[in-house]
UniProtKB/TrEMBL annotation:
Source organism (scientific name): Atlantibacter hermannii NBRC 105704
Gene symbol of the encoding locus: yqjI
Name of protein: Transcription regulator PadR N-terminal domain-containing protein
InterPro entries: Tscrpt_reg_PadR_N, WH-like_DNA-bd_sf, WH_DNA-bd_sf
PANTHER family xref list: TRANSCRIPTIONAL REGULATOR YQJI (PTHR43252:SF7)
Stretches assigned to the Transcription regulator PadR N-terminal domain: 49-117
Basic and acidic residues bias spans: 13-32
Composition bias type Basic residues, residue spans: 1-12
Length: 188
């Protein structure tokens, strides 16, 4: 059963939108601009949708809003990403559609979907932790002083490690400095 007539194809599109690898955009409106990397890895949106559905049946729009909430507003999948992913999950028996009292399609996880999610619980927890960390990281980078300090650290590391010969002892010292800084920050 298809939940929407315009989505009658088999799953061939990326289910994890934002699959945009860094690329050179010269000649396309910007000199050397890069596009951001995808938010979810291949297949991870499926996992996130199933995880959301364990908390109750939903509609496509509500799933989109829940993902936006879970990512701290940093990723909002489009219907063109959500619906093919839902088609894929339905075709594999992990979700089922039914009509609600208003005639809209309600989506629920099936027993097979719950079993698959339970079997992949470690992966689910890893995705949840990464979503939380990315949302926190995004907020931290909004602070101009912190952004400057992080950019400075990246530039120095790039200059010292990637653009010059470095011996094992110097590399060990650099790792030590980073580890001590991380420990000091953790103890604040």
């Amino acid at each position: 059963m298809r939940h929407h007539d315009r989505h009658t194809h088999h799953f061939h599109a990326h289910d994890d939108a934002q699959h945009i690898e860094p690329c050179d955009r010269r000649g396309h409106g910007g000199e050397g601009r890069k596009r951001r990397a995808r938010f979810f890895g291949h297949g991870e949106l499926r996992v996130v949708l199933l995880d959301i559905l364990t908390r109750g049946a939903s509609h496509g729009y509500e799933l989109i809003k829940e993902i936006e909430t879970l990512t701290g507003g940093h990723y909002t999948p489009s219907p063109g990403v959500i619906y093919p992913t839902l088609d894929f999950l339905e075709e594999h028996g992990y979700i089922a559609f039914s009509d609600d009292e208003a005639g809209r399609k309600k989506i629920a996880i099936t027993a097979d979907g719950e079993a698959w999610l339970d079997h992949n619980r470690e992966h689910v927890e890893h995705i949840r932790a990464r979503m939380t960390a990315r949302a926190i990281g995004h907020e931290l980078r909004k602070n101009p002083d912190l952004k400057r300090a992080l950019d400075n650290m990246k530039a120095v590391l790039d200059l010292r490690v990637n653009q010059s010969e470095i011996d094992a002892q110097t590399l060990k010292q650099i790792v030590g400095v980073i580890d001590r800084a991380a420990l000091e920050i953790a103890q604040l």
